[in-house]
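Lab notebook, bench 4. Still working through the backlog of constructs that have no structural model yet. Next entry is a single chain of 143 residues. Request: give me the structure tokens for it.
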Amino acid sequence: MTRGPKPKENAVRRNKHEHAQTLSAAGSTEGRALPPGLGISTAGAKRFWRTWATSPQAAAWIETDWAELEITVKLVDAFFQGDTKHAGEIRQRTAKWGGTVEDRARLRMAIEDQAQADAAEAPADEPPATADLDEELFRLLND
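Model written out:
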């Protein structure tokens, strides 16, 4: 036997957060090109830039957000060169953009059309740079 009154047939949630946002994966941007002046040399950092620059979150970014991405990609480049002390800072910065499912839940951010986003994630005209990534990871693990 349950306690309390019986729930209404057509119960409506009234506690939707006023700042909750739903992003469309189909509306993800082409993104910006990686600025050559940053001097990014690792394939992992270039992939990091491409991933974030084309993410659904980037559609709503302003100049300060892009500046943060530039700083973060420099940290990622240093990380892939073996300077692993930047891992915590990278994680904190990507969490603020909604990098994981848990981060997006905390930010009350949802992404529609996830199946389409997964299909569009790998560019068809660009071969994956897995060989470069494998070499970098091998070098990192053996240092």
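Notes after review: Helices lie at 43-53, 63-80, 87-96, 101-106, 114-121, 130-142. The longest strand covers residues 21-24. Flag for follow-up if needed.
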